[in-house]
Automatic annotation (TrEMBL):
UniProt name for this protein: PD-(D/E)XK endonuclease-like domain-containing protein
Keyword annotations: ATP-binding, DNA damage, DNA repair, Helicase, Hydrolase, Nucleotide-binding
Pfam families for the chain: PDDEXK_1
UniProt keyword annotation of Transferase present: no
Region (Disordered) residue spans: 261-289
InterPro entries: PDDEXK-like_dom_sf, PDDEXK_AddAB-type
Start and end residues of each PD-(D/E)XK endonuclease-like domain: 14-260
Organism field: Plantactinospora endophytica
Length: 289
């Protein structure tokens, strides 16, 4: 508790911090509370793939406009390629080629002359409960009926298709929009998931009310985390304050080997998800608005 007359400390958070607790309080504890943190499993190839593609797209926008051409992509991707987690060189090469195809198709849909308002731009906002900050993949400024409007763009490289419900339900995207509107003092209601494997866009247009609802949920999560941390400080067993929430996600959890509930989850190889990325995409795997 804060001292009398002293403001309570704000809960400093990112979308992944909030998401970790919402998914599984125990995973949150392993990631952000326990020090030293329990050992993580080996790196995942799908994380390497996602990071490589995201950084290549960031560097695409760092090029002068006349060099934003598909021929630049192999060098960009090579320069940002993360090698960890792949089964062997052959698989890594195949995934590199697939990622390059995604990027080549994706940049065909972009106007090289468009300058986003922000690329991997950090936006931050404070409320009475939390101090949020997060890095948006891209923030576009597009013409609206009453002047420029901002759009939050998030790149996705997973196999699973995405639809408008995913865009609507994403707390991270909503918080980016809420923060961007305040940072840039321009309306920001539109959020989009750009799924590179299927070249589809799943979008949603928020309202002031729907953004406020997402913010309120984030504040509720922050209050729950603060309460759990206080309970531990007051003597509650940390295992009770941060319970496990086992489910299908345990197979992909970095802490599966340290967690009693994770032992029951099927073991995934670090490259299991990218193996699926190499399989042909079936119609309907990706969905557009
Ligand atoms: S293995 Fe499952 S229950 Fe354990 S921390 Fe990870 S997600 Fe939570």
């Amino acid at each position: 508790m804060g001292f009398d007359g002293m403001p309570e400390r704000l809960f400093v958070c990112t979308p992944s911090k909030l998401g970790a607790y919402t998914d599984c309080p125990r995973r949150y504890r392993y990631s952000y509370v326990d020090r030293p943190a329990p050992a993580k499993g080996p790196p995942w190839a799908h994380n390497s793939l996602g990071a490589s593609v995201h950084t290549a797209l960031r560097n695409w926008y760092a090029l002068p406009i006349d060099r934003r051409r598909p021929e630049a992509l192999p060098t960009l991707l090579k320069g940002t390629w993360v090698r960890e987690g792949y089964r062997d060189d052959e698989q890594e090469r195949a995934v590199f080629r697939r990622a390059l195809e995604w990027l080549e198709s994706y940049v065909e849909t972009l106007d090289p002359g468009d300058e986003p308002l922000g690329v991997e731009r950090v936006v931050a906002v404070k409320t009475s409960v939390l101090a949020f900050n997060g890095r948006a993949d891209r923030i576009d400024s597009r013409p609206g009926p009453d002047g420029p409007e901002l759009v939050i763009v998030d790149y996705k490289t997973g196999r699973t298709g995405l639809d408008a419900d995913d865009a609507r339900g994403s707390q991270a995207l909503a918080l980016y929009a809420y923060a961007a509107e305040r940072v840039f003092r321009k309306p920001c209601r539109r959020v989009e998931l750009h799924h590179l494997p299927t070249q589809t866009v799943a979008g949603h247009d928020h309202t002031v009310e729907s953004l406020a609802r997402q913010l309120s949920r984030a504040e509720d999560t922050a209050r729950d985390i603060i309460a759990a941390e206080r309970a531990v400080a007051d003597g509650t067993d940390p295992d009770d304050a941060f319970p496990v929430s086992p489910g299908i996600r345990c197979g992909w959890c970095d802490f599966r080997r340290s967690c009693p509930a994770g032992a029951d989850a099927p073991e995934r190889e670090p490259w299991s998800a990218v193996e699926r990325a190499l399989a042909p995409v079936e119609p309907g795997d990706g969905a557009a608005e």
